[in-house]
Design a protein that fits this description.
The protein is mainly alpha-helical. The chain has one domain. 76% of the residues lie in helices and 1% in strands. Strands 1-2 form a two-stranded antiparallel sheet. α6 runs antiparallel to α7. The radius of gyration is 21 Å and the shape is globular. The mean pLDDT is 88. NDH-1 is composed of 14 different subunits. Subunits NuoA, H, J, K, L, M, N constitute the membrane sector of the complex.
């Protein structure tokens, strides 16, 4: 029991931190919300500091229910970084509206605990518990701004569709348990290897993949994404687009490779369909969007499609490419949403139209330059760093004899580049719109600058650091 608890130390740190900060929120009230937020960032940093040491030791906790390996460690660090960025974003955004509550950082911590369980799941039941813990906190976060009808609507939509996805996932888990006799990933894999894939097991695989696909917002389970991203408070949207996306993609990868490895032929067809549909719809549907948050929602769907190409490869290179992709994706996405946070009129009210970016290069040169870097990087245009992870997933697909899939991905990448370049054109070539109101949030400015530098050509200097970590993490699944 002691060894098992030691392997789950990051989750224990987050749990204790969340409980203590919840009590602090109850007694201190909302006037100390910012102090509690910085304390939550400290808790996330402390949890992240313990992750590498636990990954080095490695091991399986609670008789296989929880796995502490380098794959989980890589994903957890990314999740904690994205969660901390969402807390920094919220600290400056909610202030003007006067509705920032001390419960916000506690909900982020609780969601992070669920995501940690997701990426370390070694059993279908652990998977489900982690997913639900993350989701329950997310439903509240989506409707956090209670005075805004759009936020309440976003929370309701997310809850109803999330409940449907949870039911689908649970039905798939029950089918796999019924036909394989176990919920442990290793035992399910052995059953699929020894007995072949029966019709019942195939249905179980389909339902489990469908339930997880909802969390990564892959087509055709993407329907909630544009509405929830638009309606939720912008810092919450930044959180949804980064941390849960990383956790769900890591979970999907572990389930597919570890739990369903012998059924690769069967699940690969499903993943290829989701990858193609996501890249195509994410590239085409965003073209006519007038709202920047909806456009970034379709951008998120598009990027998930590219990551799924790496999963379709079903090899070590593909998994490594997914992890590298998600690391760069977090920086690009969080940076983009931090720019959206700066889009406020003189009265301090949020402005979300793409038209409001017109002529930004003449009214706020640094902000326009940072946004241009993020857009070029999301489009995968060299020499921006966003090009490299796309190259890695396409290379992995070619190595797996899926050259045609890589070719389609390249074509859809060119389509999606249109709307990214459209934003750059709007900022640099259109007549200036009314200037945004002044903002003096230093932590946000530092985050924007750091993310822009990371996804600029300077990011290539980080390859010798990130690539070995991603390769080592991918090896843990094979």
């Amino acid at each position: 029991m002691g060894e098992s608890l030691a392997l789950t130390l990051p989750e224990i740190i987050l749990t204790v931190g969340a409980i203590v900060l919840m009590l602090a929120a109850a007694f201190a009230g909302d006037r100390h919300a910012r102090t509690i937020t910085w304390a939550a960032i400290g808790v996330l940093a402390l949890a992240a500091a313990w992750v590498p040491g636990i990954a080095t030791a490695g091991g399986v906790a609670f008789d296989g229910l929880f796995v502490a390996d380098s794959f989980a460690a890589f994903a957890k660090v990314l999740v904690y970084i994205a969660a901390a960025a969402a807390l920094v974003a919220a600290n400056g955004w909610f202030g003007r509206a006067g509705d920032y509550r001390a419960e916000y950082p506690v909900l982020i911590l609780l969601s992070s605990i669920g995501m940690g369980m997701m990426v370390s799941a070694g059993d279908l039941l652990t998977l489900y518990v982690g997913l639900e813990l993350q989701s329950l906190a997310a439903y509240v976060l989506a409707s956090f701004q209670r005075t805004d009808n759009r936020s309440a609507e976003a929370g309701l939509k997310y809850f109803v569709l999330g409940a449907l996805a949870s039911g689908i996932l649970l039905y798939g888990v029950s089918l796999l348990y019924g036909f394989t006799g176990s919920t442990l990933f290793g035992d399910v894999s052995v059953a699929l290897q020894n007995d072949g894939v029966s019709t019942g097991e195939l249905f179980g695989i389909v339902f489990v993949l469908a339930g997880i696909a909802f969390k990564v917002s892959a087509v055709p389970f993407h329907m909630w994404t544009p509405d929830v991203y638009e309606g939720a408070p912008t810092p919450v949207t930044a959180f949804f687009a980064s941390a849960p996306k990383v956790a769900a993609m890591a979970l999907l990868t572990r389930v597919a490779i570890e739990g369903m490895g012998p059924a690769t032929f069967e699940w690969r067809q499903i993943v290829i369909f989701m990858a193609l549909a996501s890249t195509i719809l994410g590239g085409v549907a965003a073209i006519g969007q007038p709202n920047i948050k909806r456009l970034l929602a379709y951008s998120s769907i598009n990027n998930v499609g590219f990551a799924l190409i790496g999963l379709a490869a079903a090899n070590r290179e593909g998994v490594s490419a997914i992890l590298f992709y998600m690391a760069v994706y977090v920086a690009m996405t969080v940076g983009s949403f931090l720019i959206v946070l700066r889009m406020r009129d003189e009265a301090g009210e949020p402005v979300e139209t793409i038209a409001s970016l017109s002529g930004l290069s003449r009214t706020n040169k640094p902000l326009a330059a940072a946004m241009a870097i993020f857009m070029f990087s999301l489009a995968g245009i060299p020499p921006l760093f966003g090009f490299w992870p796309k190259f890695l997933v396409f290379d992995a697909a070619v190595r797996a004899d899926l050259t045609w899939l890589a070719a389609v991905g390249i074509v859809t990448s060119a389509i999606s580049a249109f709307y990214y370049l459209k934003i750059v054109k709007t900022m640099y070539f259109d007549e200036p719109a009314p200037a945004y109101g002044p903002t003096a949030d230093v932590p946000q400015t530092i985050l924007i600058a750091a993310a822009a530098l990371f996804v600029s050509p300077l990011g290539y200097l980080a390859i010798p650091l990130i690539q070995p970590l991603a390769d080592n993490a991918a090896s843990a699944l094979f």
